[in-house]
């Protein structure tokens, strides 16, 4: 009689962390790239057993806000997703503000998908956007092509790549996006305030790092938030603050939900730990938009996260070459931080330092971003039927070293360099295949895949 083959391709052992509980001495059984069984105690037979007992096994993280292609175009997809693999991030939702053209129609979307399928190390969902004027007719086709969400801006970095959308064009866009059922995320800073305060600072000779914060005060963010929520209320769109550095952003979203609209906002991880003192210390390496706030604001941000008012936590990873971050004039430095490879260790550390449950990481860094971008039930959970995407964390005392970042040499810098961490990423699994072993990325460009929005 012929022996039957093992029922599973792989079994992963460890303490399973979900959004609700930690299953000690658990196992995840994988078949054909998906989770086929979950349990505790003696594991079932499998072709391969990956023993991470004593370690934490999270769902693969889902970064709902990052930029692969703002600095070098679509060639950045390979490098950023390689860093994601090393960071336990198995799905990224990539912003559309690419060089040389943003993703504003179905043809550009399809071309970007082809590059993702050929070069990505992890799975990739994509935002779409619109032209500064006259591009709203492409919204429906972008949604049909599989866009996870849309992104617009109230502030202009570049009239072509990252334009400010005026109120009338935004109203037209919101109404059409509402018909698709997709979320529209907004870069939320008031153009008039930033331009006016920046010009005044430069005229007075104040170009030191703290002036980045002073020229983008809380009022700048709050005015933009009210504007986008009011337009959302008028059009029926699901309006989402792409990065709130202020607790008030989440309070405003809650207020507008009370009016019956779909309103939400995310917290980038830097706003849960960095303060104005850090931009003085880091200079250009700490410049991002919106800027770091006060230590008191960080505490308020944590209050809103723990109370359930935050949609999810993201990185806003934007790997500018280091030469773009070194000018002594803070206004000449590029705005954006590296964050994919530090995301998981930092979130575990922040929760541990505050005595908060690790289940919050599974919820806010995997399940909820997957939900908001329509990627459930495929992504974001340790659940039967989901893709077997896993992030394994080894607890201990570590120090984050920017030299270990797996990106182009000029992007191996981090605002978290030298920070004490309470965990490190020991392994990453993408659809049941190990792609990171704690030292090396094991898969090849193109092993990642484009992920269409699964649900509306």
Uncertain segments of ≥5 residues (pLDDT<50)? none
Arrangement of strands in the largest sheet: 3-2-1-4-14-15-16
H-E string: EEEEEHEHEHEHEHHHEHEEHHEHHEEE
Count of alpha and pi helical runs: 12
What's the end-to-end separation, in Å?
50 Å
Largest beta-sheet details: 7 strands, mixed
Q: What is the C-alpha radius of gyration, as a whole number of Å?
A: 21 Å
Portion of residues in beta strands equals 15-25%
Q: What is the general shape?
A: globular
**Quaternary status of these chains?**
single chain
Mean pLDDT: 97
Roughly how much helix do the residues carry, as a percent range? 25-40%
Structural class determined from secondary elements: alpha/beta
Overall number of strands: 16
SSE order and pairing:
Blueprint: E1 8-17, E2 22-31, E3 34-40, E4 46-59, E5 61-66, H1 76-86, E6 89-94, H2 106-119, E7 123-128, H3 139-144, E8 149-153, H4 167-180, E9 183-187, H5 191-203, H6 210-214, H7 218-235, E10 238-241, H8 247-258, E11 263-265, E12 267-268, H9 276-282, H10 295-306, E13 313-314, H11 343-354, H12 359-372, E14 390-399, E15 420-430, E16 433-436
Parallel strand pairs: 1-4, 5-6, 6-7, 7-8, 8-9, 9-10, 10-11, 12-13
Antiparallel strand pairs: 1-2, 2-3, 4-14, 14-15, 15-16
